[in-house]
Each structure stands twice: as structure tokens, then as C-alpha cells.
Amino acid sequence: MPTLIDTLIQIVSLLVNVFVMLVIVQFVIGLLFAFNVVNNSNQFLMQIYESVNRLMDPILRPVRNIMPQTGALDLSPLVVIVGAQIVLIVLNSLR
User: Fold this and answer.
1) H or E, element range at 38
2) Where would you find the membrane-spanning parts of this chain (predicted)?
């Protein structure tokens, strides 16, 4: 019978996996736009890109405010992913 901590670990793990997938989608679409593989006038991809940005912004904005500016390279998704993985490791050790 699963305990409360097992359920919490599963929920956090699911959220981390969703966040990682959104980071990958944002990264790939951003690369397609940056290297002109896809035109910025492609409304479908632009709407997906903007939606993913709106979903991730509340999570990434505080990290961006704390981190030093690195120019065009945004490392905040990496920091959040590593932090979430650390939380998962701690939760698993509590099990």
C-alpha cells in the first residue's frame, strides 16, 4: 500500500518530467526559429512557443532574477531541473 511519501514522490516526479519536456520543446522550437528553419510567421509553432513560455515563466523568472546575466544563454531551466532532481533524491531518501 503506497504511503503519503510515495504519492508525493510520484507527483513531484511527474511534474519534473513535464517541466523537462517543456524545456526540450521550448529549446527545439527556439532553435528552429533562430536558425531560420521555420519562419517566425508560422502561427502554430509561435503559439506553442508562447504558450510554453507563459507556462514556464512563473517558475523560471525567480531563478533568472537571482542568477547573473550570461548574455544570450539562459541557464535558468538547467538550474531548475537540477534543483528538482535534488528534491527528488531527497524525497527518495526519506522513503
Assistant:
1) none
2) 12-35, 75-94
